[in-house]
Amino acid sequence: MTERGGGLDDELLFGPEDGPATAACFRRPSGPPWPVLVVDDDPQVHAMTAVLLRDFDFDGRPFEVVSALSAEEAKTVLAQRPDLPVALLDVVMETDDAGLKLVRHIREELGNRRLRIILRTGQPGQAPERDIIVGYDINDYKAKSELTAQRLFTTLVSALRAWRDIVTIERNRQGLERILSASAPLFEMRPMRVFVERLAEQVAQVVDHGGAPAVLACRAIERGDGRRTITVVAGLGAFAHGIGMPAGDILSDTAAQEVADTLETQCNRYYADRCVLAFRTREHGVTVFRLERSEPYTADEHRLLELFCNRVAISFDNVCLYEELVALNRSLEQRVEERTVELAANQKALILAKERVERALERELLARDQQRQFLGMVSHEFRTPLAIIDSAAQLLAMRAGQVEPEMLERLAVIRGSVQRLTGLIDSHLTDERLQSNALVLERAEVDLPGLIGNVVRPFRVAYPDREFRMTLDGLPRRAEIDANLIALVLSNLVNNAVKYSGPHGPIHLHGDTDGALAVIEVTDCGRGIPEPELPRLFDRFFRGSGASGVPGTGIGLHTVQQIVLLHGGAVTVDSKLGRGSTFRVLLPM
Q1: Which of 88, 299, 318, 423 has a 20 to 30 Å separation from 113 between CA atoms?
Q2: Based on C-alpha coordinates, what's the Rg of the chain?
Q3: Which Gene3D superfamilies does this entry report, sorted A to Z (predicted)?
């Protein structure tokens, strides 16, 4: 090598051999050569390096020397071949620091961190090893005098292994980036067919290094006859034409069996030039992908594909749920439409029913008006004849007592019938006024014991064989009530006691006070009322099982309750079957 000062450099191109150099492999290498960039301004260095490396190989691949006689020439070579793994770089070339400047150009301007740079110098003192190692991103520092053939081979193999590991790490990183970028769009909602096609594209990208792998996606699909057929649902490359066809029609028997086995076991299978992947979901079946390419799949790519399968499996469920949601939405829209039609029909029916109810209500109101008119007519037209009949019966009873005593019983029947008819008219009139809210209390101070006595007197006359006991000393002499309505209340209760007790059973009327309330009790010793019927006893038109054979309308006790409530009081009943009943009226004084 020529020294820059014009003198001869007596340094050796390479150091003497430590021993006989032996080739790393005795069989002829068959793989593509490892390119080694040699940057030196001495052509003899290039020639000697080529000679030394001619007998060596690594991993079944020989070495190839790529020469550059200057730093500028090396820049051109690196721009054209950025994938060079190793560079043997001299320091002193066209300038004293040309090699060092080239190092900075490679690392900083080209951004090439993969290239393993081995600095070779014949003048170690001009580029001290410690300063160079610390100040420049190089991977080894060798003096030309120490680089024997064996050491050169060892240095290159170490550098190539480091470069290969870096490339593997970068490929894995890029694969992970492709997984992240490929799986993210798969979570978008789309139909299953579009999703599987998109997934086939993304699977190809995960292991794509510039080639175009053939990808086939298959699912087990139910046919009309109930059989399951493995059908192609998406395809790329050589399989793009087979979409919708049975997998056995476009695959060889061996390939079809591999797909079927993977679908059955749900386990991924890897071969030299192909792999078969199973994308599993919890509820929506399995989809099998078959990938084929000329370049063998590495163990790192196997791990990348496993990771990709695990990451996008959930997107299958999302797509299946999306399709179920779309189907449910269609069903819901149809049901809403049907329900809307049904509601329209129901609305029309309701309108017709409303019209019928309105007409019925009009007829009901008309009937009630007619009933009210009829009751008014009955009250007016019947009361006078009934009063005349009652008066005539009284006169006849007075004379019969002197002339024909046996007629008194018949006359008593006549007078009782008149009183019952009069009471029936009064009850219906009062009930009608209550239902129409037309009943108004006419309160006045009333001698309550005297009122009770007046109510009981007609019953004594009508039923001379019955005993009516009255204990009224505890009642106040004056009470502010509607005398006519309270008389109707007591008359109804006494009448019921007479009707539902034996022919000789006593009727007891008891009066007392409870604070500010007057308490009137009517007790009989008759049939009694069954306990299950007590809650309905005051309902309008209700007649209990004990009323069989006894005349009545079922409005008497309802009228009693309504009148007492109008007075601000209450009415209760205690009854024991077969032993009689006690009706208790509480009235504010």
Answers
A1: 299
A2: 59
A3: 1.10.287.130, 3.40.50.2300, Histidine kinase-like ATPase, C-terminal domain
Q: For 485-558, list the strands marked E by DSSP.
A: 507-514, 517-524
With H, G, I as helix, E, B as strand and everything else as coil, classify residue 406: helix
CA-nearest of 322, 274, 261 to 302 is 274
Collapse the DSSP code of 529 into the 3-class scheme (helix H, G, I; strand E, B; otherwise coil) and give the result. Answer: coil
Residues whose CB is less than 8 angstroms from the CB of residue 478 and which lie 6 or more positions away in sequence, other chains included: 445, 446, 447, 448, 589
- What's the CA gap between 564 and 587, in Å, rounded? 7
Q: Is 259 helix (H, G, I), strand (E, B) or coil?
A: helix
Kindly list the distances between the CA atom of residue 203 and the CA atoms of 161, 190, 212, 288, in Å, as whole numbers in the listed order.
Answer: 29, 18, 11, 12
What average pLDDT does the segment 77-85 reach?
89
The label of the residue with tokens 């006169």 reads 395
| Token pair in block for residue 539 | 């309902």
pLDDT tens figures, 465-512: 888 999 988 898 888 888 888 888 898 898 888 888 877 788 999 999
Pairing of strands 517-524, 580-588: antiparallel
* Whole-angstrom distance, CA of residue 56 vs CA of residue 52: 8
Letter string b/e over residues 185-198, b meaning 16 or more CB atoms within 10 A of that residue's CB: ebeeebebeebbbb
> Going by DSSP bridges, is the β-strand pair 86-90/61-68 parallel, antiparallel, or unpaired?
unpaired
pTM strictly above 0.90? no
How many CB atoms are closer than 10 A to CB 432?
A: 17
Q: Is the pLDDT of residue 93 over 60?
A: yes
Kindly list the distances between the CA atom of residue 225 and the CA atoms of 162, 228, 248, 263, 264, in Å, as whole numbers in the listed order. Answer: 60, 9, 19, 21, 21
State the Cα–Cα distance between residues 555 and 496, nearest whole angstrom: 12
What is the H or E stretch that residue 261 is in?
Answer: helix 253-265
- 461 Cβ neighbours under 8 A, 6+ residues apart: 412, 415
Q: Which residues contact 489 (CB under 8 A, 6 or more apart)?
A: 559, 560, 563, 564, 585
